[in-house]
Amino acid sequence: MTQASFSSLNALPPEQLSNLEALGYHTMTPVQAASLPAILAGSDVRAQAKTGSGKTAAFGLGVLARMDASRFSTQSLILCPTRELADQVANALRRLARHLPNVKVLTLCGGQPFNIQRDSLAHAPHIIVATPGRLLEHLAKGTVKLDELQTLVLDEADRMLDMGFSDDIDEVIRFSPQHRQTLLFSATWPAAIAAVSERVQRNPVTIDIDSVEALPAVEQRFFEVAGREKISLLQTLLSERQPASCVVFCNTRKACQEVCDALNASEQSALALHGDMEQRDRDQTLVRFANGSSRVLVATDVAARGLDIKALEMVINFELAWEPQVHVHRIGRTARAGEQGLAVSFCAPEEISRANALVDMLKLDIDWQTPPARRIVKPLEAEMATLCIDGGKKAKMRPGDVLGALTGDVGLSAADIGKIDVYPVHVYVAVRQALARKAYKQLQQGKIKGKSCRVRFLS
């Protein structure tokens, strides 16, 4: 099937089309092709589409097309369930808005100082990307005004309901103008989401991209294994395949931490991501996994929403998901943008009813495989290590400043340096493991932009 180009959308100006081309957006994904005409026409849209399908660009282009950058008022609001997803969406919007001068995109999430956010709101942002709880604090104190809101986006709406934000969404609606465009995106479509749509949208255009037939190519392998043998099987599979990146899904925070601890005890580098963690620890975990400082992330479903890993080799369901839709969402993470992926699922005897539900939904015959014989566990070492440098955006620190310090004063080659992530008060930089200690010591003794900086070695 021929994919439509963005130039077929007459509502997008030439400057935006040039920007999309520069960003590598050459043709529209299915969700973009299905939803953008209605979004650009001003209609309400409710769309079911999984993470990684291109929905952020779909609603982002609609938001920017309606925005008047000369008016300093909040014209669009995007609600997200987690800070990680909010940061990801905000960064994507800033890239999409590069052709527009002086566009202000602001994230409002918990775990960040309220006073700093309040000061940033002294001049109203054009676009706010927020989690519901922190946004309501600002609305209650009058630091955010939605009087001129044109577009409201509910992103990952199903996860917001899972996290108990239903009443918060209704409260945000109370502060919003009645005549607005409301866009609702959800990876799954339980009855509760349909009820939200009925409450907050007007005659929405309904789009369903996440049908079983539309799933990307994912090789699935199922193993029936007793619960007490799952750790051993996991270690064996990781030893055999040696994946560069793998997410292991668990259903509970307790199981998540136990699995992570067992992997690290066998020198298979792993990080845990779950709801009991402080926000700073969650940020650092996501950065370290994304930049290759750990090859395995053990996560719960709620915590993993907003995870943006473009080349995830493997997904392992350590425990089968409670709902078939969640299983579909999990396995789709390892086959983004047409890439092949591998999804492995462990099924204990007490989980067989969940496996049967998957058979009914996916309409496939599960080929139960015999678990491989247990072998000596091979270490799974990370290629990179992460250094945390105090400074960040508040200190006007840029990736080039850190790269210059590492290649100049420290003497590393550019090939030894990985991702550089700039946060408000920190910069995280990935350096090859063999050279990380050297870089750490040299940066402690040197300067960046003429200033001494505190440096920490994270892994």
UniProtKB/TrEMBL annotation:
Residues 385-459 are annotated as: Involved in 23S rRNA binding. Transmembrane segments: none annotated. Residues 36-207 form the Helicase ATP-binding domain. GO terms for molecular function: 3'-5' RNA helicase activity; ATP binding; ATP hydrolysis activity; RNA binding. SMART domains: DEXDc, HELICc. One of its GO terms (biological process) is ribosomal large subunit assembly. The keyword Metal-binding does not apply. Belongs to the DEAD box helicase family. DbpA subfamily. DEAD-box RNA helicase involved in the assembly of the 50S ribosomal subunit. Has an RNA-dependent ATPase activity, which is specific for 23S rRNA, and a 3' to 5' RNA helicase activity that uses the energy of ATP hydrolysis to destabilize and unwind short rRNA duplexes. This is ATP-dependent RNA helicase DbpA. The gene is dbpA.
